[in-house]
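Chapter summary example: a protein plus nicotinamide-adenine-dinucleotide.
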Amino acid sequence: MKNLLLTGGCGFIGANFIRYLLEESDFKGRIINVDKLTYAGNSENLAYIESQFSDRYIFEKKDICDFKGMEEIFSKYLIDTVCHFAAESHVDRSIVAPDAFIQTNIIGTFNLLELARANMDQLILFHHISTDEVFGSLGNRGFFTEKTSYKPNSPYSASKAASDHIVRAYNKTYDMPTTISNCSNNYGPYQFPEKMIPLMILNAIEGKDLPVYGDGRNIRDWLFVKDHCKAVWKIMKSGSRGETYNIGGNCEMKNIDLVEQICDLLDETTEKLPNRSRKELITFVKDRPGHDRRYAVDFSKTKNNLGWSPEESFKSGMKKTIQWYISNRKWADRVKSGEYRFWIKKQYR
Ligand code: NAD
Ligand code: TYD
């Protein structure tokens, strides 16, 4: 893998992955990071990488929906590997404004696959980053496996499911070397503070309301972002072409328990709020439509075939995450002062 096209590298997981590849992994090639810099993308996330790895890291501001622009990238950099993170990623936004989700997540992925197909002679791998949300919602028991049928419930998960199917079809029809990973909810540094964990951390630090949807008993499986990065790299190196791999944290939690833990950790480690515990900030608000009740991931295939398991415990990962947001309050203010400010949560409320 000499010339890796990585899409969406200025977002949360992409930025962590680029850091991991260049600073810690045995990857030896160069990375061409293509990102449109939507409200969720921030090139500042990689300023340090740009200065430290100037010979192995290139940034190109481009939209993956721009076929001509992406064609230039493939030929200019002799792309031999693709790792595709770029997406619209927030379920709440997909409910209010699904259009961009259909464009980027489906058409954008299709463009990349077409260009990879046109460059098949030199293509080593097309790795597609996906989510456990494509499987829909679980009852009280059971886990998603790689064989679980797709039943997406939100415009976000439906758009990701569509893109997964197209990747699969390119493997079956054109024998394209592809892999897909379906991962559970990530948390860690650089996550845009509209997602549950950074939103709760920042609001709790500032003494603002902590809005928990519905009865707070929806369950998510949480994974520290660096563990996700390690899994993706293992799959890229050793995963069987044409296969899909589940990635999970072995860490199911009810939303309300998670928010309470964040409150307790903040009360223990930072200045207390005057006369009250942070848990008193919890406010139950109207539920998200189509809100999936429970996600839980069986990642035994990835564990047994590739030797990957999560390394970070929830407590240690959460402590690192809280510490990062405390030390990077200005980052959070800056990213929130962009387009996000104008996205009025007109919502479904
Ligand atoms: P994010 O929203 O933080 O980042 C997405 C990045 O993609 C941003 O930098 C954005 O500018 C870029 N982008 C969006 N549209 C683009 C376009 N048309 N052209 C080029 N770049 C574009 O998302 P994330 O949380 O880092 O998620 C990355 C990937 O991982 C997504 O595919 C998502 O579906 C998947 N995933 C996320 C999670 C999670 O918990 N965050 C879990 C499983 C899978
Ligand atoms: P989120 O981080 O948006 O991820 P996803 O919807 O992709 O799983 O939300 C995680 C869980 O937290 C989900 O069950 C919805 C819930 N949630 C809240 O209760 N309040 C909030 O303000 C947000 C953003 C999410």
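Key point: The pocket of nicotinamide-adenine-dinucleotide (ligand 1) is lined by residues 7-8, 10-14, 34-38, 40-41, 63-65, 85-89, 104, 108, 129, 131, 160, 183, 185-186, 192 (CB under 6 Å).
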